[in-house]
Amino acid sequence: MRRAAVAVVTTAMAVSLAACGSAAESDGNSDSSGSAEKKGDDIKVGLLLPENQTARYEKFDKPLIEKKVKELTNNKGEVVYANAKQDATLQAQQVDTMITNKVDVLIVDAVDSKAIAGSITKAEQADIPVVAYDRLAEGPIDAYTSFDNVTVGKTQGEALLKALGDKAKDGQIVMMNGSSTDPNAAQFKEGAMSVLKGKVNIGRSYDTKEWKPENANSNMQAAISALGKDKIIGVYSANDGMAGGIITALKRAGIADIPVTGQDAELAGVQRIVTGEQYMSVYKSYPQEAAVAGEMAVALAQGKSLDSIAKDKADSATTKDIPTTLVPVVSLTTENIKETVIKEGFYTIDEICGGKYKAACDKIGLK
Given a cut of 50, is residue 8 above it in pLDDT? Predict the structure, then answer.
């Protein structure tokens, strides 16, 4: 039997983590292998990613998951891919298509964690297990892998405080949070606020529609108009794409040399860190996250246990004790570019330091 969805009295999508073997309440099913008929290596994995505005999905997640599935199935497994382009309705249609095409398992990074629940239920009814990838979707999810999102927010908040130093209360910061439809955004904000509350003055805070850089740019312009350009001393940006829009607005207003955070270690973000326009990003090992997702998907499709893969549990608003693996994160600054994105093969020094970035790279010893 597939795990049944369990109602949880909560209004948020917060993840409640507990080590395996804890006294967390069970949902009545200790088998985390799903009910998919046991198969060999000839499996079909449906991969649904949420958008293509953020560079990571097409550049890292998709090819890395495809590589892992091939590796685990002796090159016999097939990955069927669809990108929702930030459209929850389109993603629901894509799930329907995957079900019609009889995929053996789904990996879903939801555009809207609540709206996708009905589609996840359809997959369950079709006996197709679902791995929630990067964002914990609602509905009868069988497995989940992501980063510790609260820790991501704490990492960003701590970095911002470090950059502000003794001037942390000399002005106001702007909080540029992610989309309200993304449960990760709420957790990033929770983590950041646990560090920043009481230690900085928050002049304005925004939930940025669809994580779009242009929306972050508009929000930042509004904040500058409301607070005054001389009053803003730093910006909490939940990711690198939005940081780009924010920094454009700051430049246009003549504001320079204030710390701006980020996340995802996008190439443009790393280059802004090199030049000093952006203070930091959060480096997340997409190869590790993608590898876990691939392992979970293949195991579920083949009717195998997840016990050796998922060491934690997570609760969504609808489902409890979801087998979970969380991947660690690192604060990325000028000091550790070589040890992070370059060492793991995200980018080469030539990619980061080409053209107009060479002088800045030379200055920080990135050669």
Answer: no
| pLDDT tens profile 32-84 | 444 445 689 999 999 999 998 777 899 889 999 999 999 999 999 999 999 99
Q: How confident is the model at residue 86 (pLDDT cuts 50, 70, 90)?
A: very high
3-state SS string for the chain: CCCCCCCCCCCCCCCCCEECCCCCCCCCCCCCCCCCCCCCCCCEEEEEECCCCCCHHHHHHHHHHHHHHHHHCCCCCEEEEEECCCCHHHHHHHHHHHHHCCCCEEEECCCCCCCCHHHHHHHHHCCCCEEEECCCCCCCCCEEEEECHHHHHHHHHHHHHHHHHHHCCCCEEEEEECCCCCHHHHHHHHHHHHHHCCCCCEEEEEECHHHCHHHHHHHHHHHHHHHCCCCEEEEEECCHHHHHHHHHHHHHCCCCCCCECCCCCCHHHHHHHHHCCCCCEEEECHHHHHHHHHHHHHHHHCCCCCCCCCCEEECCCCCCCEEEEEECEEEECCCCCHHHHHCCCCCCHHHHHCHHHHHHHHHCCCC
Report residue 247 as tokens: 């920094």
**Residues 154-190: tens digit of each pLDDT:** 999 999 999 999 999 999 999 999 999 898 999 999 9
Distance CA 60, CA 355 (A): 24
Residue 130 · residue 139 · CB < 8 Å: yes
HSE-up of residue 366 (Cα within 13 Å, Cβ side): 30
Residue whose structure tokens are 């929770």: 190
What are the distances in angstroms from CA 329 to CA 248, 282, 286, 311, 342?
27, 7, 10, 17, 15
Q: Which two tokens stand for residue 332?
A: 């990325």
pLDDT above 50 (res 358): yes
Closest CA to 172 of 268, 267, 75, 255: 255
Q: Contact, 15 vs 188, CB < 8 A?
A: no
